[in-house]
Structure formats: C-alpha cells, structure tokens
Amino acid sequence: MKPIAKILAVGLLGASALAAHAQVNQVRVWAAACANCHGTEGRAQPGMDALAGKDKSEIEQKMLDFKNGRRPATIMHQIAKGYSDEQIAAIAAYFAAQKK
C-alpha cells in the first residue's frame, strides 16, 4: 500500500471512531434530560419509575404512547414530543443497557 493510501485509511478509521463516539455522547445528552425524574442513568429514587435495565421495547413503546397521546401523563407527553422516533429508540436502548 502506498504511503498516501495508508494515511488516508488511518484518517478514515479515526474519523469513523470519532463519529461513533459522538453518537454515543449525543444519546447520553438526550438521556440526561430524564435524570430529574428517573435518576442518573435511569436509577430512580423510590417512588419514581426506574428505567435502567428495563426492556428496550417496553421503554420505547411507553415513550411512543406518550408522544402520540395514547398514554396519559402530566409532563411526559410534552417531553416525548420533543424527540423523533429514532431518538426515542436510541434513548430506550441506552437505558436498557444500564445496570439496575
């Protein structure tokens, strides 16, 4: 492999790694907005609904139900409307991956 091709390959790999890292950080930023009610990384205080370690599809479905008005809420329906379906799926995956 020519030296310039090696440099380009290394640069592409580095850029891919940075993009993946940025995506993980973005999901953590979205999930951090849930901490006031659901605790840091989804480990809620007693009396609140913990999200850490819950089934991804369960979290995702609840959020979509809030977003679409199928589930009554005091504030979650407003919060859920601020996320796309893809963002909700990413947030649900993040919380499902956290330890209880």
From TrEMBL:
Pfam family, one: Cytochrome_CBB3
Alphabetized InterPro entries for the sequence: Cyt_c-like_dom, Cyt_c-like_dom_sf, Cytochrome_c_Oxidase_Subunit
Presence of the UniProt keyword Nucleus in the record: no
Signal peptide extent: 1-22
Gene3D superfamilies, per the entry: Cytochrome c-like domain
Gene Ontology molecular function, alphabetical: electron transfer activity; heme binding; metal ion binding
Domain of life per record: Bacteria
UniProt keyword terms in alphabetical order: Electron transport, Heme, Iron, Metal-binding, Signal, Transport
Coiled coil: none
Residue ranges of every copy of the Cytochrome c domain listed in the record: 9-99
Classification via PANTHER family: CBB3-TYPE CYTOCHROME C OXIDASE SUBUNIT FIXP, CYTOCHROME C4
Protein name: Cytochrome c553
